[in-house]
Amino acid sequence: MTEQTQEPFARPDGRAVDQLRPIDFQIGIAPHALGSVLVSFGNTRVICAASIDNRVPGWMRAQKVEGGWMTAEYSMLPYSTHDRKQRDISRGKADGRTIEIQRLIGRSMRAVFDLKKLTGKTIWLDCDVLQADGGTRTASITGAYVAAQIAIQKLIAKEELEENPFTDSVAAVSVGVYKDTPVLDLNYPEDKDASVDANLVMTGSGKYVEAQSSGEEATFTREELDTLLELGAKGIAEISQLQKAAICEGLK
Ligand code: UDP
């Protein structure tokens, strides 16, 4: 009788299933922006910059909406991917993925922000992917919060803002099912073969802002979803601590 041997499960980079990639925040990468950071989740690296505009969008002025606004733009630099990605400006329009991601970043930030306290100002959050290796949208959200929080604290120090409008911190991470196993923080080789792909956006206090999960030519069970949510919550708790430390360091 022949015995069937099954290969033991292993992630391409050898991480444990609940292990994040090495995360790093390089603060002040774009000195002309009030707040900026180069955030790395392993080989995914995104420049996030927060700039202040002392006006609100036309629709807010027209509708006499009080307070300020915060919005985001996302792009992948042409050389961030293995095959050069054409700039949107050369193509003449942003693709659907870009629009979806930048709206997600803006929503994630506004969920933990009291816009009424930002009277007359707009915060622009620019997220530009320098190197893509999976999870660029979750890295963008994580870095955008750090850049925005630094910008806000600098505005307060300059006496251009009275109170901090942030009500909580926000971070994001991807989770997914790779080779039938739920894993945290997928890199590109995992992402491309994952049967379930999920992006979780959560606050530092553990509440959800967004939980998107989709089967990729596959379905998933309630049990798998519960495991993914647990992995994500563990990851976000760790990322939130790293964000806190990076902001403190960045404001020294
Ligand atoms: N990717 C790419 N070119 C693209 C879009 C995506 O090379 O035009 C790669 C990139 O490594 C990215 C990954 O595919 O991180 C997964 O893309 P997805 O759309 O799932 O978004 P992400 O995981 O980056 O948030």
What does this protein structure show overall?
There is one protein chain. With 252 residues, the protein is α+β, with helices and mostly antiparallel strands. Helix content is 32%, strand content 27%. Strands 1-2-3-5-4 form a 5-stranded mixed beta sheet. A 4-stranded antiparallel beta sheet has the order 7-6-8-9, sandwiched between helices. The longest helix has 29 residues. The protein is globular, with a radius of gyration of 19 Å. The protein starts with 22 loop residues before the first strand and ends with a helix. The structure holds uridine-5'-diphosphate. The site of uridine-5'-diphosphate (UDP) has 11 residues, from helix 4 and helix 5.
Q: How are the elements arranged and paired?
A:
Layout: E1 23-27, E2 35-41, E3 44-53, H1 58-62, E4 69-76, H2 88-91, H3 96-110, E5 122-131, H4 136-157, E6 170-178, E7 181-184, H5 188-193, E8 196-203, E9 208-215, H6 222-250
Parallel strand pairs: 4-5
Antiparallel strand pairs: 1-2, 2-3, 3-5, 6-7, 6-8, 8-9
Helix pairs in contact: 3-4, 4-6
Bound molecules: uridine-5'-diphosphate.
Uridine-5'-diphosphate binds at residues 81, 85, 97, 132-137, 188, 191.
| Spatial ordering of strands, largest sheet | 1-2-3-5-4
Average pLDDT confidence is 96
Percent in helix: 25-40%
The unreliable regions are none
Tell me the fraction of residues in β-strands, as a range: 25-35%
Biggest sheet layout? 5 strands, mixed
Bound molecules: uridine-5'-diphosphate
Give the full name of the CATH homologous superfamily. GHMP Kinase, N-terminal domain
The Rg value, from CA coordinates, equals: 19 Å
Helix-strand pattern, N to C?
A: EEEHEHHEHEEHEEH
Give the overall silhouette: globular
Number of helices: 6
CATH class: Alpha Beta
Structural class: alpha+beta
Total strands: 9
Specify the oligomeric state: single chain
How far apart the termini lie comes to 68 Å
Domain count: the total is 1
Keywords: Nucleotidyltransferase, RNA-binding, rRNA processing, Transferase, tRNA processing, tRNA-binding
Domain Exoribonuclease phosphorolytic: 19-148, 169-234
Binding site for phosphate: 97, 135-137
Protein name: Ribonuclease PH
